[in-house]
Specification:
The chain has 249 residues and is α+β, with helices and mostly antiparallel strands. The protein has helices at residues 12-20, 47-51, 67-104, and strands at 56-57, 63-64, 106-110, 125-129, 143-147, 155-162, 167-171, 174-177, 180-181, 196-199, 204-208, 226-227, 231-240, 246-247. It has 3 helices and 14 strands. The strands form 3 sheets. Strands 3, 4, 5, 6, 11, 12, 13 and 14 form an 8-stranded antiparallel sheet that branches. A 4-stranded antiparallel sheet has the order 9-8-7-10, with no helix packed on it. It has a two-stranded antiparallel sheet with strand order 1-2. The longest helix is centred in the middle third of the chain and has 38 residues, at 67-104. It is elongated. The relative contact order is 0.12.
Length: 249
């Protein structure tokens, strides 16, 4: 080896050892899920621990649960039970109101038979006001629901024709009130059977069905005139069928 190429720091054996050493990868704390200080991140406690009241440490280092903490924990359950009871009370109140209205204010009347044809047909459902005559007197042309004479569990639907103290006459198929011909546009057939002559008593009403051939009404002695207190209400609306919904007048 020439002196000109001599390197006093050249160490062939050390270079060989360096080349034979294995390489290593640097693994950081983040690769293990640790923070920069080498601590594991905080984890959410199980749900059952979240529901439990927090313990408090006394000055002596003992962990205790205070009664007020237990009370606070029970409050949501108490509120839940209270909410259900509130719904029940609202439902009961609604039922009481509905029963009251049904008994004293209105009722739904279903038409059976053909005595009011063509104005009403079988199967019609009517809104009947029970308070219509608390503040007003019945008028001619009103469609009323009345207790069937001699039949306590049944009701009739008829039209008021004669008012108290009026003279009602049926002569040769035509109806006269105090000698004046009554115009009845609601009739399919203008002819009224059964000749009649009567003075309507005070507080009573002469009623007939629109289908005069089949209606059983004040023309017949077993029915006669109807006292006001036997009239249950005034039919105002047809509720069903929906295609015929609307006022009856």
């Amino acid at each position: 080896m020439s002196d000109n190429n001599y390197d006093p720091f050249h160490r062939p054996q050390a270079d060989k050892e360096r080349r034979e050493q294995p390489s290593y990868s640097i693994i950081t704390a983040a690769d293990h899920g640790l923070d920069s200080a080498g601590r594991a991140p905080a984890q959410e406690p199980p749900a059952e621990y979240l529901r439990a009241p927090a313990a408090h440490t006394t000055s002596s280092g003992i962990s205790v649960i205070r009664p007020e903490d237990l009370k606070k924990q029970a409050e949501p359950q108490a509120k839940s039970g209270s909410g259900i009871w509130d719904y029940i009370k609202i439902l009961l109140l609604a039922m009481v109101i509905a029963l009251f209205l049904r008994a004293f204010v209105f009722e739904i009347t279903r038409v059976e038979g053909a005595s009011m044809y063509p104005s009403l047909v079988e199967g019609d459902n009517l809104f009947t006001s029970k308070i219509a005559y608390l503040f007003a007197e019945p008028e001619r042309g009103d469609i009323v629901v009345l207790n069937a004479p001699g039949l306590p569990s049944e009701h009739y639907i008829k039209r008021i024709i004669g008012l108290p103290n009026e003279k009602v006459e049926i002569i040769q198929g035509q109806v006269f009130i105090d000698g004046v011909l009554l115009e009845e546009a609601y009739l399919a057939d203008q002819y009224t059977v059964v000749d009649t002559e009567i003075i309507v008593p005070e507080g009573c009403y002469f009623v007939m069905g629109d289908n005069r051939d089949v209606s059983h009404d004040s023309r017949y002695n077993d029915i006669g005139t109807i006292p006001l207190d036997e009239i249950k209400g005034k039919a105002k609306l047809r509720l069903f069928p929906f295609s015929e919904f609307g006022s009856l007048y």
